[in-house]
Amino acid sequence: MRRTLPILLALLLAPASLYAAHAPASFSVAQSLISASSSPGNVYDAGATVVITAPVAGDLSAFGGSIISAAPITGDELLFAGSIHSRARVSGDLRAVGGSISIEEPVSGDLVAFGFTVRDSGRAGGSVFIVAANTTISDGADGPVIVYGNNVSLGGNFTGDVTVVASGQVSLDADTVIMGKLSYQSPEEAILPVSAVIRGGVTYTNASYLPDVGTSRILSLISLGFFLFVRVLGALILSGLFAGLFPRLAERFVEGTVTMRPTKILLTALLGFALFVATPILSVLLALTFVGIGLALLFFIAYALMVLLSLLYAGILIGNLLARRFIHRDVVLWHDGVLGTLILSLITLVPYIGLLVVFLVTAFSAGTLLAIFFHFAFPHEVDTPELL
To answer: With CB atoms 3.0 to 4.6 Å apart as the test, which of 42, 149, 282, 314 could cross-link to 365 if both were Cys?
Structure first.
């Protein structure tokens, strides 16, 4: 079982493009997004509220505050949201991360879910892996089932083995059938009705919930995953806000970048790299003197703000360059910041190379911002253009 858990985690974290169809993909970002037209390929949606009402012939990947999937999905489904409702059949795998997750229709492939509350009233055709405070599976599953959580309720017909690690109560509904083995660990024995049938036998481990090394690693990965999700979501929101609230600065930033020659691009990236390296060293040297402690603190605050702005405007730059390339739009909109930051976040998932690429783009962004701020503070003309 310990070998199975990392594999399931890898399946959850793997980008949906690995399972993508070869048909054209569609990308949509809006505050309230209703997808009412069918798509022949993969669909990527993001918004505060996302509602899918038309069939998707490929994979569906959605990010938002609330997601309702009410149309059949031919491929896989990857959902990240505070509230998730899957109300139509999924022909592939379903992977979901959210606060409240409700699955009402069958999933032909594997089901992987991380959330506070998970309710599965459909039926998974493959394996099931759930981590949640409260889990309810009411229609069984065709494959093996692994559940980590507090309170776990099981019902229906389970074809394979069922493994449960719970810190609270484990219960089975009346007439529940488990063709394999039921193995569970909890502070007290499960509630097993007389009508329940468990053909493979029951293995119970009595323990106050103190996770072993393997479980601690899994929980650590889950905590890290939630942290990364919140961090990426916060970066998406900030990028959209900066692109929308300060359009003049964003347009000046992008326009200056588009017209740069390759040599100037390299010099600008070196300037940003020097800023990232020199500022911390200067702050430490100033902090060694009593007089320079206050100045070192100001340098550190300015450095942290510059790093944040460089990351945000790197996303704005990437998003607007894609808009210029594919939809021929020169104006910078808040959508560009959201899309570009999302792309940078996905690039960081690539080992080693992804972090290097993001660092280079961020260093270039820092150099460009530094040049803009310098010309703003020391203008060559009498009338300084308003950037903010």
So the answer is: 314
Give the Å distances, CA to CA, from 143 to 119, 162, 318, 320: 17, 9, 42, 45
CA distance 227 to 381: 46
Total Cβ atoms within 10 A of residue 92? 22
Burial 311-338 (b: 16+ CB within 10 A, else e): bbbbbbbbbbebbbeeeeeeebbbbbbb
Give the tokens for residue 372: 């803009």
Reduce the DSSP state of residue 332 to 3 states and report it: coil
Q: Distance from CA of residue 55 to its chain's centroid?
A: 23
Going 284 to 286 to 292 to 295, the CA torsion angle's sign is negative
- The 3-class SS string of 33-54 reads EEECCCECCCEEEEEEEEEECC
**Rounded CA gap, 68 and 81, in Å?**
10
CA-based nearest residue to 239, from 92, 345, 140: 345
Going by C-alpha positions, the residue among 71, 29, 30, 31 that lies closest to residue 54 is 71
Is residue 216 classed as helix, strand or coil in its secondary structure?
A: helix
Distance of CA 139 to the CA centre of its chain: 28
Cα separation of 387 and 381, whole Å?
A: 15
* pLDDT tens-digit readout, 152-177: 999 999 999 999 999 888 999 999 99
Helices 213-245 and 293-326 cross at an angle (nearest 10°) of 80
Tokens 């669909």 appear where?
Answer: 43
CB 183, CB 200: distance < 8 Å: no
Give the burial string for 206-229 (b: 16+ CB within 10 Å, else e).
eeeeebeeebeebeebeeebeeeb
153 beta partners: 136, 171
pLDDT of residue 160: 93
Q: Which residue has the tokens 């990010």?
A: 63
Instruction: Tally the C-alpha atoms within 13 A of residue 253's C-alpha that lie toward its C-beta.
Output: 31
Strand partners, 131: 114, 148
- CA 345 from centroid of its chain's CA atoms: 9
**β-bridge pairing 145-154 and 170-172:** parallel
Q: What is the mean pLDDT of residues 140-159?
A: 93
